[in-house]
Amino acid sequence: MSPRQSCMTIGLLIAASMLVLVIGLLVGARPLSVGTAIRVLLAPDGKIDSILVWTLRLPRSLAAAAAGAGLAVSGYVLQTLTRNPLADPGITGVTAGAVAPIVWSFVFLPSVSPVSYPFIGLAGGLAAASVTFWVSRGGQGRPLQLALGGISISLFLGAITTYVLLLTGPQSASLLFWVSGGFQGRTWSHLAYMLPWTLAGVLGALLARRVIGMFMLSDHAAAGMGLQLGLWKPVILVLAVIPVAGVAPIAGPVGFVGLAAPHIARLLRPRGTGWEIGLCAAIGSLIVVSADVICRSIAVPRELPVGIATAMLGGPVFIYLVQRGRIQLGVGR
After folding, report:
1. Could you give the angle at the alpha carbon of 217 between the alpha carbons of 214 and 223, nearest 5°?
2. Assigned CATH topology for domain 59-324
3. Contact partners, residue 113, CB within 8 Å, separation at least 6
4. What is the distance between the alpha carbons of residues 80 and 262, in angstroms, rounded to a whole number?
5. What's the burial of 134, exposed, middle or buried (CB within 10 Å: 0-12/13-18/19+)?
6. Number of continuous H segments (helices) and E segments (strands) in the chain
7. Which are the contacts of 96, defined by CB distance < 8 A and separation ≥ 6?
8. At what angle do helices 58-82 and 257-267 cross, to 10 degrees?
């Protein structure tokens, strides 16, 4: 795919995400017509329809789009860093590492400001990823080693999270919904809270695209091209965890996106690491925005956590990737 075609594809994906976002403004416990949605978008009047659009539906859809972009790019960077097509924030333990300390802090350290949660999630995600990479020989082991190491870490931290949830009493219902992953009740303040972390991860990956591309080679080849592995490996790992640290406090763990979006982007055969990152972000946004709209419209007036929908999609995709075994990093180059 040429750069022009990649640019057009990204534009089409963004347009599709915007179309789904507009559809999301219409559906819910109180459906709106297209004309009403356009009217209140252009001229908010403070009435119920305007509140539905501007306070409830638009910010949560934008938060879903930003979260999807960040998680997709995080998965792409992790897959490239480990040269492992099965790596993603969930399988490498990054998500569980970010969620567990946030839940623990929420329950046992209520005096800690929520503003600190991304930093807590960043530290936990980095620690969990480091343990997973150590188990898989620095990420250089077989895909099965990384998967087993990451799943083991995720199960261990998930058990701790579940135990803490059992101690929360009346708070457990809201925490359980958050741990399932979702954007219910997310507002403009939540979007502003998450957006800098997501942008930092995505823009950082774009700025470091040449270095990320070198990690697709062997360590010897990358070092021979002048890449300082001891410096750049930790930097790229931090770039991969930053979006998860920003998304987790707002939406909880949202799976599948970081695993599938990079493979879909590579199957489109873009020319260059930068275009792959852009496609990942656009595909991730479309996936999560679509899942959010489905989950809040399929069982009106109730809604399902987004994490449930993405996990139900992610299981078959994961099995397909394992069984096929032919999807490799750098397809299309």
Report:
1. 70
2. ABC transporter involved in vitamin B12 uptake, BtuC (1.10.3470)
3. none
4. 10
5. exposed
6. 15, 0
7. 90, 128, 153, 154, 157, 158, 161, 253
8. 70
Take residue 220 and report the two structure tokens written for it. 């010897």
Q: Give pLDDT tens digits for 78-92.
A: 999 888 887 889 888
- Rounded to an integer, what distance in angstroms lies between the CA atom of residue 26 and that of residue 313? 24
Please check whether residue 57 is in contact with residue 96, taking contact to mean a CB–CB distance below 8 angstroms. no
pLDDT at position 166 over 80? yes
Return the amino acid letter for 194. M
CA 188 from centroid of its chain's CA atoms = 19
- Tens-digit pLDDT profile for residues 208-252: 999 999 988 877 888 888 888 888 988 999 999 999 999 999 998
CB atoms within 10 A of CB 137: 12
Burial class (CB in 10 A: 0-12, 13-18, 19+), 325: exposed
- Rounded Cα gap, residues 287 and 260, in angstroms: 10
How many residues can be counted in the chain? 333
Task: Give the model confidence (pLDDT) of 292-315 as tens digits.
Answer: 998 888 877 788 888 778 877 766
95 within 8 A of 125, measured Cβ to Cβ: yes
Global pTM reads 0.89
Other beta carbons within 10 angstroms of residue 145's beta carbon come to 16
By CB neighbour count within 10 A (0-12 exposed, 13-18 middle, 19+ buried), where does 170 fall?
exposed
- Residue 243: is it exposed, middle or buried by C-beta count within 10 angstroms (0-12/13-18/19+)? buried
In the numeric block, which tokens belong to residue 14? 């963004």
Confidence class for position 28, pLDDT limits 50, 70, 90: confident
Helix (H, G, I), strand (E, B) or coil at 113: coil
Residue 189 near residue 250, CB atoms below 8 Å: no
